[in-house]
Amino acid sequence: MKPEELVDEFKSHIEWEDDMDDTMLVHYLSAAMGYVKAATGRQPKQLIFMVAAILNDYRVPEKEMAGALDSLTPFFIQEVYTNGTTDEQA
Predict the structure, then answer these.
(1) What pTM was computed for the model?
(2) Can you tell me the distance from the alpha carbon of 63 to that of 67, in angstroms, rounded to the nearest whole number?
(3) What is the domain range of residue 42?
(4) Is the alpha carbon torsion for 11, 12, 15, 19 positive or negative?
(5) How far apart are CA 16 and CA 69, in angstroms?
(6) 55: in domain
(7) Which end of the chain has the smaller Cβ count within 10 Å, N or C?
(8) What total number of domains does the chain contain?
(9) Dihedral Cα 57, 58, 64, 69, nearest 10 deg
(10) How confident is the model over 57-66, as pLDDT tens digits?
(11) What is the CA radius of gyration of the chain?
């Protein structure tokens, strides 16, 4: 799956208006895909969208962004354990 393929679906998950510029969404999705892959060994779409939404909301790394990403930890743990992935496989 490529980030470009997810842009339209991602827009439906966030507050997006037609007149807004979507050029950065591919970058947010790409970064989210790498982040999720490194954390879980997989790329589940819902986690990608959650991380990309945080990147879109904050746009610049700051303390609140770190807190928002940290709040996703239970979802990452659940993904790892429900799919039988261990740290050695990720």
Answers:
(1) 0.80
(2) 6
(3) 3-82
(4) positive
(5) 21
(6) yes
(7) N
(8) 1
(9) 70
(10) 887 778 889 8
(11) 13
